[in-house]
């Protein structure tokens, strides 16, 4: 039985991850970690997540859980994730990271950590979004560089702190790579004012933050006379959490290296 620790256990994804673990076979919750000053310490993790008693008490640090897990599932915040990766690196644990909003510099820490640990790092763990990444590559290559304007539109709940979403940025990267463009050079974020006519090579990003939207992403390819839209809509967080649990099972079989959901789903 694979034992999993969930950090950010009281968060939206933390609770969904506990629920997904409870539904899965061959893998189970070993530890649930919240912030050190949380009033939830000592509470049963299953009761906290709304799935009934699991016999795992919530703790305030990974140190307290070191003997209780093989794989960490972390959906928290960038600095917290990096601290947790350092811990797993030192203690020989595998890692699944869903946190978004990491800077390029923070991502280089993951590259380094993957020399000694097996890590899955993906901005979106759902099967559907990862299939969309593949479809986007095919679409971008087929439509080419000359005719089609490309825009990435995403919508999320009012609590989301990073924008554009990690998924939207990855969609932009996939399309830019397929077209031989550098996203850093061609990305435009949220136009305003007298911006002028649209330059051909731009990839535009538009962000909506509203209510309880779980996560919608559309990539629009538009030219004179037609447009193509590739859209994914998540309707609950279990879709991400089931992907994270699948990744946890998979990464347990790896020694070192940095992987994403495309590796796990055979979409590379
Ligand atoms: N890859 C994917 O498929 C998906 C990725 N995400 C990403 O996952 C991340 C989390 O999202 P979400 O669950 O909605 O966010 P939440 O804010 O609901 O959860 C984040 C959790 O991290 C905890 N946390 C923050 N700081 C610390 C700390 N110093 N020590 C310990 N715990 C800490 C928070 O604790 P507290 O509650 O006490 O503040 C909270 O429980 C985001 O980056 C989001 O973009 C989200 C969905 C899918
Ligand atoms: O914060 C969220 O909620 C989500 N974040 C991820 C992202 O930034 O792409 C994935 C998903 O869309 C939900």
List the helices and strands and how they pair.
Blueprint: E1 2-7, H1 12-23, E2 27-33, H2 45-49, E3 71-74, H3 78-91, E4 94-97, H4 104-113, E5 118-121, H5 127-143, E6 149-156, H6 166-178, H7 183-186, E7 187-189, E8 203-209, E9 215-223, E10 226-234, H8 238-251, E11 257-259, H9 261-265
Helix pairs in contact: 1-8, 3-4, 5-6
Bound molecules: NADPH dihydro-nicotinamide-adenine-dinucleotide phosphate and ligand LZUJQKHR.
Residues 8, 10-14, 34-35, 38, 75-77, 80, 98-101, 122-125, 162, 166, 240 line the site of NADPH dihydro-nicotinamide-adenine-dinucleotide phosphate (NDP).
InterPro entries: DapB_C, DapB_N, DapB_N_CS, DHDPR_bac, NAD(P)-bd_dom_sf
Domain Dihydrodipicolinate reductase N-terminal: 2-125
Main location: cytoplasm
Summarize the structure in words.
- Helix 1 crosses helix 8 (238-251), helix 3 (78-91) packs parallel to helix 4 and helix 5 (127-143) packs parallel to helix 6 (166-178).
- Strands 2-1-3-4-5-11 form a six-stranded parallel β-sheet, sandwiched between helices.
- The protein folds into two domains: 2-125 and 237-265, NAD(P)-binding Rossmann-like Domain (Rossmann fold), CATH 3.40.50.720; 127-234, 2-Layer Sandwich (Dihydrodipicolinate Reductase, domain 2).
- The longest helix is centred in the middle third of the chain and has 17 residues, at 127-143.
- With 268 residues, the chain is of the alpha/beta class.
- The model has no long low-confidence stretch (mean pLDDT 97).
- The chain has helices at residues 12-23, 45-49, 78-91, 104-113, 127-143, 166-178, 183-186, 238-251, 261-265; strands at 2-7, 27-33, 71-74, 94-97, 118-121, 149-156, 187-189, 203-209, 215-223, 226-234, 257-259.
- The protein is built from nine helices and eleven strands.
- It binds NADPH dihydro-nicotinamide-adenine-dinucleotide phosphate and ligand LZUJQKHR.
- The active site is at 156 (proton donor/acceptor), 160 (proton donor).
């Amino acid at each position: 039985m694979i034992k999993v620790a969930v950090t950010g256990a009281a968060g939206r994804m933390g609770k969904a991850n506990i629920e997904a673990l409870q539904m899965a076979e061959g893998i189970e919750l070993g530890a649930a970690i919240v912030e050190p000053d949380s009033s939830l310490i000592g509470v049963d993790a299953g009761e906290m997540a709304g799935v009934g008693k699991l016999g795992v008490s919530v703790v305030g640090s990974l140190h307290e859980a070191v003997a209780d897990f093989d794989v960490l599932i972390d959906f928290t915040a960038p600095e917290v994730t990096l601290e947790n990766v350092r811990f797993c690196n030192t203690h020989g644990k595998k890692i699944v990271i869903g946190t978004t909003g990491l800077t390029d510099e923070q991502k280089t820490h993951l590259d380094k950590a993957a020399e000694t640990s097996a890590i899955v790092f993906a901005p979106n763990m759902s099967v559907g979004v990862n299939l969309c990444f593949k479809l986007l590559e095919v679409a971008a290559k087929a439509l080419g560089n000359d005719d089609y304007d490309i825009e990435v539109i995403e919508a999320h709940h009012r609590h989301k702190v990073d924008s554009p979403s990690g998924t939207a940025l990855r969609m932009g990267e996939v399309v830019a790579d397929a077209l031989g463009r550098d996203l850093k050079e061609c990305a435009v974020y949220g136009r305003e004012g007298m911006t002028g006519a649209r330059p051909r090579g731009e990839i535009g990003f538009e962000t909506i933050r509203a209510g309880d939207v779980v996560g919608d992403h559309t990539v629009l390819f538009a030219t004179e006379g037609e447009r193509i839209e590739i859209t994914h809509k998540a309707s609950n967080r279990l879709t991400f959490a089931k992907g994270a649990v699948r990744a946890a099972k998979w990464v347990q079989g790896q020694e070192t290296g940095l992987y994403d959901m495309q590796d796990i789903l055979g979409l590379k």
